[in-house]
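Whether sequence alone determines local backbone shape is best considered at the level of individual chains. In the encoding step, the backbone of a single protein was reduced to a row of integers, each denoting a local shape. For completeness, the protein is quoted in full, as a sequence line and a line of structure tokens.
***
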Amino acid sequence: MQTLSLPQARALHLAAQGLLQPLARPAQEGDVAACVQRMGLLQIDTIHVVARSPYLVLHARLGDYPPAWLEDALANGALFETWAHEACFAPADDLHLHRAYNREGRTHWGIAHAQKLAAAQRPQLDALLEQIRTQGPVKSSDFVRLEGKGGAWWGWKDEKRWLEALFALGELMIARRDHFHRVYDLSERVAPVLRQPAPALPPDALAAVWVEKAVTALGVTQARWINDYFRTKPRLQDAHLEALVRAGRIQRVAVEGWAAAGYVHTDHTGLLQQALAGDLVACHTALLSPFDPVVWDRERASTFFDFDYKLECYTPEAQRVHGYFVLPILCRGELIGRLDAKAHRAGGVFEVKSLHAQPGCVWTEQQVQEVAAAIHRCAAWHGTPQVRIGKTQPAKLAAALRRALKRA
């Protein structure tokens, strides 16, 4: 097996994710769909104390771009929404694959809830489908809560639960979003390709497709990290990948410091050779979303970057260590810290409530300058150009960042 150093493996991972180097030109509208195609999916989350996660993930890779481009890509059919890692945008080319796996193999809670609801309330679902068929697309807000609180699923009203169940079951799709609110329509109207018979794949072949897609998106990965990317089953061991290795679809590599083998897709053979030659040079600095694929697997982020990242927005405030919506700081191939931010849009202020350097990491002057520039870019893109730095760890970083921001 060829052997990668850990920095080489990290560079290969970031290159596959589109985070090794900044985009060499201004972003174009087609870059949004291309970026999601490269990652394989884009996780959706509604927390927006800074910006909603999918927009942040794209900003880290594309720089300044109009957020409406993401909604446009959904509306024009370049992307669609599906359950996968969680609720995600995914490239249109993968529509049949996701629907097949959601129907036959996925055990996600959203789909399980939908199946239970359909078994208990199928007549209500059918009546809602007929309304949409005859009257057109709907939003949850089109329905008024008549009395009391809603049922299960976060206290949703019945129509919202029915819409979400029909979406999870594949009978409805998201036609577009209005101010990020889902607009539901019949699947065959949203994606006319569904009127044609879907390509048939045996279960083993379908499972192999998701393995290959995850390995490609990750650049280099251990077997145990593969299934989490698209939330497939089961968690894999090296033996599960032997057939793909023998078929020449993926290859094993060694990574210094890893007890387990690494895997690289043959589509990345060129990147692998560049990594081995030391030609993949990390020169990008960006603030990452808490739901960025690079950090959403805690074990993987720790192994690649020695970065222990826990999502704390769902943790009671008194138990939080770093803050509510904490953005990992990527700087030239390393995760060197994290910051808790809030965008005060009405006042044009981007507040860095707290910032923690990675333990044991003493930032160089260059790192301070590049992180300040990344904060400035992110703040300006939000329309909150005035940056306010709160407490930092170490404390002296605050003054250094303030000085650097004046030059950014």
